[in-house]
Amino acid sequence: MKSLINIAVIIALVFAFTGCNKPENKQVANTKLAIIPEPETVKLTSGNFSINKNTTVYCNNESLLPVANYFNKKVSDALGFNLKIVVGEGDGINLILSDDSDNILGNEGYKLNVTKKSIAIIANKANGVFYGLQTLRQMLPPQIKSKTLQFDIKWSVPCAEIQDRPRFVWRGLMLDVSRHFFTKEEVKEYIDQLAEYKMNIFHWHLTDDQGWRIEIESLPKLTEKGAWRAERVGDWWQREPRGKDEPTIYGGFYSHDDIREVVKYAQERFVEIIPEIDVPGHSLSTIVAYPEISCTHTVKDINVGNKFYTVDENSLCVGNDQTFEYLDKIFTEIAALFPSEYIHVGGDECYKGFWEKCPKCQKRMHDEHLENTKELQSYFIKRMEKLLHEKNKKLIGWDEILEGGLAPNATVMSWRGMENGIKAAKAGHKVIMTPTKNCYLDLYQGEPSVEPATYSMSRLSDSYSFEPVPEGINPKLILGGQGNLWTESVPNFWHAEYMTWPRGWALAEVFWSPKENRNWEDFVSRVEKHFERADFAKINYAQSMYNAIVTPVSGENGELKIKLDTEIKDLDIYYTFDNTNPYYLSSKYESLLSVPKNASRIRINTYKGEKPVGKLISLDIGMLEGKLKK
Ligand code: TNX
Fold first, then answer.
1. What is the fold, at CATH topology level, of the domain defined by 2-164?
2. Range 21-41 average pLDDT
């Protein structure tokens, strides 16, 4: 008995000395700091470091001056003064490139130590220091974007020890600038926003059927004709094609100087830009400019969002050698403008119907012993890979590039689920996972009746629960993942922000944080704090996670029953069938609802206590009954 007591005493002492009995684990500590993406380890210590007019940023190496300036620019508007920035070290904010590379931190990791006297951010590379500064910014009060001084704020940082590094090397967001055009300034703003959440890849979808957005000096018609279409609003695919004499006034493109400016801006934020030129399908804008590289040579209009697929030709002619001459010109300029290791060549959703009837394509198939048009697409992609290789670039394509045989060194972006990514990885190829269900930022993020029109559903919880590495697959082949914002239904920048955040924050955490640190409820609590930060920063976001989830279900006799739910916890749902708006004194949802006789609508809202937090949802009972029958 005595020896048992001794053992218990020894265990208690060991725990006391190692700090294992501290109530504050890293999860709790970060719930307080609310950093997104969640760092690998966080320990809060006592006290604060205060920033004032005398605070100096010390760089131990001149190469860190740009990141110090970036940090100053971000916080000085809010502070109302500039931080002094010098090379050296002292009591202040120290940015430190470590002499001997720390293997644990790698290329992008950092350590952040905040004491009452000073702050130290230590990393092997400037990237890591940049990410440490992003964490530091999130430990400060929200910073307003504009010269409005935040007088009554205490600019202090809680003392803490953080060690952090990313899980994946590819942490991306894609923006489609073809369906709707986004200005150079907007693109820069988007890049700035993603870098704040430690994302490092901006995939720039530059061409599609609805517009060619990058100047190609050797083929000027691509932007003279391909960048402009008739102006339209309204639901995508329901729009009227351009009228006979209608002017093509909607659009725009980036000049070479614009591109260089954006590339530099991204580099300053450690973001690599992956340009995408979508070929051989999705190429209507190319064909509008140069009909001679299509199969039928018919002159066409840029698509305005009307139905055209399979009717109007939008694939390049693969039988025509001129197509490859043009592509060589295009990719020579692209390769010179973008320093990235990879170039994305699209390859998705290529309609092959015109190839079937084209004598040149048929001859190519005969000469190259290709059995079908899938193999013709594969021939095209393999030729593109060689063409890019000559320009010292590697090829990425959407997962359709697997069809008909994958090019030997291609990297695959898996979008139609994970299966094609798995197939490619099993064949030894590198993969970026971006399945629609989890990563498509153009989909609904909550109850469709209160969201702008789009299709299908990908909620915040779908983004957050995404796991890029499938079981049994070598994790080294999964470079990471990315969120994709297709913009058919995104006509302006504030709506692009609305669609991106907070789902993009969830993806940022999936791609950066250790898998075992992920916790949905904790994430939601941090998202709420980031909503507030975004308000200060004038960044739009969606609060769809507060809206009720409505599901029609079939009762015992096939009658309509209504199930209500919420995506996040601690919300009460109130509803009415009497054509009044719900209030916290209305009926509270407890279990499956039966529809009262003659009820024509159900109205629903969510509350936190007595405060409405969701959007008022009003649904026609007949419509819900109709859904049940489908
Ligand atoms: C599929 S994903 C596409 C895009 C559309 C998107 C809409 C992919 C490679 N192709 O062209 O914009 O769906 O969600």
1. Chitobiase; domain 2 (3.30.379)
2. 79
Confidence band of 151 (pLDDT split at 50, 70, 90): low
Q: Which atom of ligand 1 is nearest to the CA of 282?
A: 11
Q: What is the pLDDT of residue 25?
A: 56
| 544 in Cβ contact with 451 (< 8 Å) | yes
User: What pLDDT is stored for residue 95 in this prediction?
Assistant: 98
Which is nearest to 268 in space by CA: 58, 493, 73?
A: 73
Q: Can you tell me the distance from the alpha carbon of 180 to that of 512, in angstroms, rounded to the nearest whole number?
A: 30
Pick among 2.60.40, 2.30.30, 3.30.70, 3.40.50: CATH of 547-629: 2.60.40
Neighbours of 570 (CB within 10 A): 9
What amino acid positions are annotated as catalytic residues? 208, 282, 349
In short, whether 349's Cβ falls inside 6 Å of ligand 1 is: yes
- Minimum CA distance residue for ligand 1 atom 6: 486
pLDDT grade, residue 78 (50/70/90)?
confident
The Cα–Cα gap between 344 and 525 comes to 37
Query: Which candidate, 586, 592, 584, 575, places its Cα nearest to that of 611?
Result: 584
How far is ligand 1, taken at its centre, from the CA of residue 119, in Å?
45
Higher pLDDT, 17 or 506: 506
Looking at the CA of residue 176, tell me the nearest atom of ligand 1. Answer: 12
Give the per-residue pLDDT at 12: 45
167, 196 in Cβ contact below 8 A?
no
Tokens of 536: 């200060």
d(CA 600, CA 384): 58
- DSSP-derived 3-state class of residue 280: coil
Dump pLDDT digits (tens) for 557-595.
999 999 999 999 999 999 999 999 999 999 999 999 999
* Nearest residue (CA) to ligand 1, atom 5: 486
CA–centroid distance, 485 to ligand 1, in Å, is 9
Give the start-to-end residue ranges of the domains of the chain: 2-164, 170-512, 547-629
Tokens of 461: 């919880």
C-beta separation of 352 from 373 below 8 A:
yes
**385 and 319 Cβ atoms separated by less than 8 Å:** no
Token reading at 106 = 């790698």
- 96: its two tokens: 């430190």
What's the topology of domain 170-512? Answer: TIM Barrel (3.20.20)
Nearest atom in ligand 1 to the alpha carbon of residue 443 is 14
Mean pLDDT over residues 406-432, rounded?
Answer: 97
Mean pLDDT of 404-412: 95
106 Rama class: left (phi>0) / alpha (psi -120 to 50) / beta? left
**Ligand 1 centroid – CA 612 distance (Å):** 36
Give dist(CA 292, CA 305) in Å, integer: 24
Tell me the pLDDT tens digit for each residue of 473-527.
999 999 999 999 999 999 999 999 999 999 999 999 999 999 999 999 999 999 9
Cβ pair 106, 75 in contact under 8 A: no
Between CA 39 and CA 109 the distance in angstroms is: 10
Does the pLDDT of residue 386 top 90, yes or no?
Answer: yes
